[in-house]
Amino acid sequence: MRLSQMLFVTLREDPAEAEIPSHKLLLRAGYIRRIGSGIYAYLPFMWRVLQKVSQIVREEMNATGAQECLLPQLQPSELWRESGRWDTYTQAEGIMFALKDRQERELSLGPTHEEVITTIAKEMIRSYRQLPLHLYQIQTKFRDEIRPRFGLMRGREFIMKDGYSFHADEESLKKTYDDMHKAYSNMLRRSGLAFRPVQADSGAIGGSGSQEFMVLAEAGEDEVLYTEDGEYAANVEKAVSLPADAKTSPFTSYEKRETPGTETIEKLCQFLKCSPTQIVKNVLYQGVYDNGMTVLVLVSIRGDQEVNEVKLQNELTKLADRYGGKTLLSLKVPDAEAQSKWAAKSLPLGYIAPDIADDYIADQKQLDRKFLRLVDKTAVELKNFVTGANESGYHVIGANWKEQFQLPEIVVDVRKARPGDRAIHNPAQTLQSARGIEVGHIFQLGIKYSKAMGATYTNEQGEEVPLVMGCYGVGVSRLAQAAVEQSYDKDGIIWPVAIAPYHVIISVPNISDGEQLQAAEKLYSQLNEAGIETLLDDRNERAGVKFKDADLIGIPYRIVTGKSLKSGKVEVVERASHKSEEIPLDEVVSTLKQRIEVAIHK
Amino acid sequence: MRLSQMLFVTLREDPAEAEIPSHKLLLRAGYIRRIGSGIYAYLPFMWRVLQKVSQIVREEMNATGAQECLLPQLQPSELWRESGRWDTYTQAEGIMFALKDRQERELSLGPTHEEVITTIAKEMIRSYRQLPLHLYQIQTKFRDEIRPRFGLMRGREFIMKDGYSFHADEESLKKTYDDMHKAYSNMLRRSGLAFRPVQADSGAIGGSGSQEFMVLAEAGEDEVLYTEDGEYAANVEKAVSLPADAKTSPFTSYEKRETPGTETIEKLCQFLKCSPTQIVKNVLYQGVYDNGMTVLVLVSIRGDQEVNEVKLQNELTKLADRYGGKTLLSLKVPDAEAQSKWAAKSLPLGYIAPDIADDYIADQKQLDRKFLRLVDKTAVELKNFVTGANESGYHVIGANWKEQFQLPEIVVDVRKARPGDRAIHNPAQTLQSARGIEVGHIFQLGIKYSKAMGATYTNEQGEEVPLVMGCYGVGVSRLAQAAVEQSYDKDGIIWPVAIAPYHVIISVPNISDGEQLQAAEKLYSQLNEAGIETLLDDRNERAGVKFKDADLIGIPYRIVTGKSLKSGKVEVVERASHKSEEIPLDEVVSTLKQRIEVAIHK
C-alpha cells in the first residue's frame, strides 16, 4: 500500500484522553479513533493487526477440531432468565446493555454466549454419539463498563474469540480444557507475547475451575502471585498461600481492657504491645441476594490478614440456597447509613466482637433481615486472643473460642494471599508479585448452564443427563493492545513481526529524486510479489518526518532508498533494535523474506 | 472435516416458520438456527459460506484501492442528531435500535455508518491531497424491522459490507461510483449469481443517484422493470416510462352530473362510458415533517395511473423547507379518524375535486395545518376531463384547467411505471417485470452528510468546502441466501462452487466395510492436501440417508466409495446435474481439482 493513498494521520503530541503508553501510541499512530466512551473505530492499520491476531487464534482453534460459527449479538431476554443471569447482568453488575424492540420485547447485547449456545445444544444434541463438540466464534462483544478506560483494554465494544465445548463427562471436558491450555499458549507465543497462565476465580461465569492467560505488563489491571520455581501462579483474587505462624499470646487470662483510640490493628498492637497475629479482627459486610434478601455478614479473621472479597463473595454465593436466593447480587462494607439502619445502637466500629449479633442487632431479626457469622481458618486456631469488646474504646484480651465466644459454625478460607507469603506446594518458595493483562480465560463450566436450561443428552446407558460444558475466551482486541503495552520505546510501537500490520516500510527520503523513487518502486513490487506486506512512503514529506512516522507506527523493517543507492545498496533498519545495515539491492527481498519467516515461526 | 465430529443435524420436514424455499432449505440442512424474531445463529456450514462471500467481496474492494477497517456498532446519538437522522431512524421509521447506557446516554445500534465515518473524515481529512479515499468494513448490522421474515433475507441482525468514499469533486466521485459498479458486478458474477443492476430510489440514505444490484428470483421482495434491449432497468419505486396516450374526451361542454355509486374509476367509466384516460383522479395523503408539521396533500393524476408513493415522498421531502422541516417523517392515506379531523364536513371520498381545499378544509387554515395541491404530469395536458364534484354521488364532465379548476402550481412526476408501458429511451420497447432480491446498493451521496456535519477540506484554491461522498453496500448474509433461492431443486441446495461450504463430500456407503473406509480415508487426505475442501461422511448411517443429506446440504461433488471400488474406481456425482460417472482412484484428485478451478474462475 502507498501511504499517499491511505488515511494516514499521525500526531506528535500525546492525546489527553489516554493514560497508558499503548493507548497513547495507538491513537498517535492512527490505529484507532475514539467515537464515544469506550467505543473505538479500528482504522486500516489496526484492522490488519486484528485480522492477523484473529487468524492465529482461528488456526490454533481449528487445529484442536473446534469449528467456527457466528452467534447473534442480539439475545432475547428469555434465554438469560432461563439461566438465571438476567438480573445479575442487567442490574446488579449492570454490565449488559439491554434494550427493547418495537414490540417492547427485551433484548440484550451479548457480553458472552453461554445462553445462546446452550439453547442450540439443547435443541440439536440428542445423543452421546454427537459428543464431544466444540464451537467457537470471533465476534464483537459489548459490556457497559462502569469505567471504560485504557483504549481497547477495557472498552464497551471489543472483539473476542469465545468457544464452548460439550461433553459426555468430566474426563472429556478435562481433555478439551487441556487442549485449550495448549492452544492458548500457542496463540500467545505465536503473537510474540510474554505471558503466564494463572489459576483464576470463575466469577459470574461460574463453573468448577478456570485459568487466566496474563500478558505481563506494568499497566496490567490484575495482580498475579507466582513462585519462582514455576510451580504456582494465580490471580491474587484466587491465590492461596500459607500464612505466617501466629505468635504465642502473652495474655493468659481473660480480661476487658480500656484501649482508647485503637480503631486500627496497628494502633491496638502498639497500645497492647502485642502482635497482630494475636488478634481476632471482626469485619462487617452487607450482602444482597437476587431475591432481595439482605444479609449482614461478620467475618472473624486473624489481625494480620485481609479479607479477599472475591473469595468471600464465592462463599456467600454457595450459601444462597439458605436465603432462598440463587446468586449474590452485591457485597459491600455497609456505609454509615446502612449501619445505622442495621444497628439497634450505634456500632462500635474498631471495637466489634465476634458476637456482635446479640448485643447490637437484636432488632434485625424482627425485621426479617439475616445475620451471618463466618470465621476464617486463620482465626480458628488462636488461643488467648485479643478482640473487640463491643464497646467503643474497649477490647478483651486472653479470650478463647468456646469460652468467651462461640466459634462460628461456618469456617472459610477468605484471606488474601500476599507477596512474601510462603507457597503451599513448597513452603521454601515465597510468592512474588507481577502485574498482568488478562487476555484469555478458560473455564470448566460443568453442568451449571445445561442444568439450568435443561440441555440434556442420552448417554450410553440410555439415561437423559445434562451436558458437561467448558468455555474459553480470548480478548482479541485487548491482546493486540497488550502487545503494544509490552513492546514499545520512546519512538513508538515495536510490533511483533507476526501481528504487525505490514512487515516492511520503504521510506523514500526525497520523492523528487528519480533514482530514489525508481529503486523504491522496484523494491515495492518485488517485495509484494514475494508475499512480503510492504508500505511505500511516497508522500511529499521531509525524510525526517518519514523516519519518525515509520518508527511511530512500528513496522518491523524500514528500507531507506538513500545515499547508499550509489553503491547499489539500500539501508535496512530493524525497528526493535534500531540496527542499520546496508544490503545490496538484489539481496533485499531474500534477506528480508528469511528474517520475517524466522520471526513469525520462532 | 469428518461429519461424525460436526454438529450435523438435518430435518426431513419443512420447518413451519419458513415461507420461501431458501429459508426452508437453510434450516433443514442445518446451516442456520433461529434464536429470536429475525435473529439467527450461523452454524459452521453457513459461516464457511459467509466467509467465502466476504472474501470475494474483500478481494474486489481491495482491487479498487479501498481499505478495510471496522467501525463501532454502538453509535452515540449525538452523531445522528448532527446529521438530522436520529428522529427519522428511531421514531418515524423506527428501524434503528436505540438504548441507554448506565449513564443514561443514548446510543444506537448501527444500521449504517454515514455518521460515524463522516465524523472520522471531519477530524482526519484536512486537504485535497488526502483525497480520494475509500474505507469499507464487513460487519454485523441491525435493523428493527417491522416484519422480519424469510430468514436472512430480512433479518434484524445481518452481515453487510459497507464502504464510504470521499472526494474533492463530483467527477472523482463518479469515477469511484463506476469502479464500484464494476466491483459489485464482479462480486456477484464470481459468487455464481444471475443478477441485474437497476436504477434505484435513494430513500432515507439520500444523495443524487443510486443503483441497486438485484439477484433475480421469484421470491424477491422487489419488482424490477426492464426492457429487453438491456438499455433500461429500474426498481419499480424509481422506474419511469411513457404513459399510454389519452383518448380525446367526448364531453365538450362543462356540466355537473349525478353519478351514483361511482366511487371507483372503473365504475365511473362504465357509468359515463368513457376512458379512464379522460378522468382527473384526486388522491388525498397526509404527510408529517420532522418538526411536527402535518400537511394534507391532494394529488391530481390521470384516472388510468397510480401514485408511486416513493416518488411522492421524495417530492414532499424536497418541499420540507417550505414547512420549516428537514425531512418527511411519514406519508399515508389519512384514515377515517384523520379525515374527520381534517374535514369541516364529511369528505366526499370517490367524488373529490381538484379544488377540495376551498370547500372542505377551510377550517384547517385556522388550525395552522397546511394544505398542498400537486398535479402529476399525466393530468396537466387533459382537456374536457371528468373529475369529482366535491359532493357524494356527483362528478363534473367537460372540465378544463384554468376554466373550472386552477392548475396546481406544483407539477410533479409521481406516477407509477408499469409493465407494458413504453420505455422512454425507445418507445418501441415495452417494460417487462421481474422479481429481484436487492443484495447491493451504491449511492452518490454528494455533500448531504458532509454539509450537515461540517466535514470539510481545503481545496487546491485554499477554500474550505464540504467533502463529496459516496457510499456502497452489499448484504453479505442476504447474498448467501439469495444464492440458494436461485439455485436449488427438490432434493436440496445446489451451491455455486465458489461459495459452497465444501467442494466435495465423500459418502462411505458402509463404514464397516474396511475396503470402503480405507479408500475413503485415503481420498480424504489426498483431496485435503490438494487444497480441495472435503467432507468425509463417516457416520454410522445407511447409504440412503447419507446420499439424501449430501444432496440436501448441496456440496457440488459427491464421491461414493461403493461397488466400483472392485474395478479401482469411485462414483463421482455432480450435485447440480445429478450426473454420475466412474473415475479411477488415481484420477479423482486431478479431475476434481480441474473442475473446481474452472467453476470458481469462470
Overall body shape of chain A:
globular
Q: What ranges of chain A have pLDDT less than 50 throughout 5 or more consecutive residues? A: none
CATH architectural type of the largest domain in chain A: 2-Layer Sandwich
How many domain regions of chain A? 3
The two chains with the largest interface, and their residue counts, are: A-B, 58 and 59 residues
Topology, number of strands of chain A:
31
What is the CATH C level class of the largest domain in chain A, in words?
A: Alpha Beta
Largest sheet of chain A: 9 strands, mixed
Instruction: Please estimate the helix content of chain A.
Output: 25-40%
Mean pLDDT of chain A: 93
CATH topology of the largest domain in chain A: BirA Bifunctional Protein, domain 2
CATH superfamily of the largest domain in chain A: Bira Bifunctional Protein, Domain 2
Distance between the termini of chain A: 27 Å
C-alpha Rg of chain A, in Å?
Answer: 30 Å
Oligomeric state of this protein: homodimer
What fraction strand of chain A? Answer: 25-35%
Structural class of chain A: alpha+beta
The total count of helices of chain A amounts to 17
